[in-house]
Write a structure and sequence with these properties.
This protein is 37% helix and 15% strand. The chain contains 13 helices and twelve strands. The strands form two sheets. Strands 8-7-6-9-10-11-12 form a seven-stranded parallel sheet, with helices on both faces. Strands 2-1-3-4-5 form a five-stranded parallel sheet. Helix 1 packs parallel to helix 13, helix 2 runs parallel beside helix 3 and helix 5 packs across helix 7. The chain is globular and about 70 Å long. Bound molecules: (2R)-2,3-dihydroxypropanoic acid (DGY). The site of (2R)-2,3-dihydroxypropanoic acid has 7 residues, from loops.
């Protein structure tokens, strides 16, 4: 029997799956585990199930000890995991791709609609008790039909967002390290372009690339200047891909028309300049937040850990 430490609350079905085979120490409090507590608890663990709120670095791996075999991150993004530090210690790192694709694309599209149709602003009017009445020019937004969606990072979530855009009558262009196969590209009606062309052309720019040093502040002052003043930016990937201070300036100065964010540079903090603006829709990192998706994510992470502990290949190792 191995020892598995689960560092945050996850759906019980996944914990039960682990408990059926191993000794499990699962953090069950609603608040996140403190770093100090985490470093103490992981001692002697053979497997860790980690959430994106925990930093998995050399210090944590060493606190666990040399018997640690697997870090199963319950997220598709793994910028919280120092993968080279895992590899150097012979620890397998895994993530949860695929199972949160549709849920995250739903939220990307919700943000596209919130930003372009000003639904957050409208709701704030009602809730604040301000007087309002229907008017020909009241809270006019921007339609999507015939407009162009620019997808930055055309992995599963980018493609799922593109499919939604097609259903709304949008054209799709994309920028990605690797191009789509001809059949997939044709199915999505998507044309691959460089980032400069995408920024200059798209009516809505939606970010779906992973966060890494290479994508840190990929979208900043220079990129906002290159976008159309009628364009919108949506980010459901990772906060630090966007320079939030530059975004607040661009939104305030009318360099772009609006934005929708689900992720932030310093979560849970949100840049104060954004909070003052009406032309940005703000959600608290809800991309994968459905019961079905969170259950699938936790179950996949559990399967990854169990496979490694059984000496087998995990279903979804992090691809380097
Ligand atoms: C992920 O899996 O990376 C998401 O951000 C979690 O919501």
């Amino acid at each position: 029997m191995s020892k598995i430490v689960v560092t945050g609350r996850i759906p019980e079905v996944a914990v039960e799956r682990l408990r059926a085979e191993h000794e499990v120490d699962a953090w069950s409090a609603a608040e996140a585990i403190s770093r100090e507590e985490l470093l103490t608890r992981v001692a002697g663990a053979d497997a860790l199930l980690t959430l994106l709120t925990e930093r998995v670095d050399a210090e944590l791996l060493d606190a666990a000890g040399p018997q640690l075999k697997v870090v199963a991150n319950v997220a598709v993004g793994y910028d919280n995991v120092d993968v080279p530090a895992c590899t150097a210690r012979g620890i397998i790192a895994t993530n949860t791709p695929g199972v949160l694709t549709e849920a995250t694309a739903d939220v990307a599209f919700a943000l596209i609609l919130m930003a372009t149709r000003r639904t957050g602003e409208g709701e704030r009017v009602i809730r604040s008790g301000q007087p309002w009445k229907w008017g020909m020019f009241y809270l006019l937004g921007s339609g999507l039909q015939g407009k162009t969606l620019g997808v930055v990072g055309m992995g599963g979530i980018g493609q799922a967002t593109a499919r939604r855009a097609r259903a709304f009558g949008m054209d799709v262009i994309y920028q990605s390290r690797s191009g789509l196969g001809p059949e997939v590209a044709a199915g999505l009606g998507a044309r691959r372009v460089g980032l400069d062309e995408l920024l200059a052309t798209a009516d809505v720019v939606s970010l779906h690339c992973p966060y890494s040093p290479a994508t840190h502040h990929l979208i900043g002052a220079e990129q906002f200047a290159a976008m159309r003043d009628s364009a919108y930016l949506v980010n459901t990937a990772r906060g630090p891909i966007v320079d939030e201070a530059a975004l607040a300036d661009a939104l305030r100065d009318g360099q772009i028309a609006g934005a929708g964010l689900d992720v932030y540079e310093r979560e849970p903090l949100v840049h104060a300049g954004l909070l003052e603006l009406d032309n940005v829709a703000l959600l608290p990192h809800l991309g994968s937040a459905t019961i079905e998706t969170r259950t699938a994510m936790a179950t996949l992470a559990a399967d990854n850990a169990l496979a490694v502990l059984a000496g087998e290949q995990p279903p979804t190792p992090i691809e380097k």
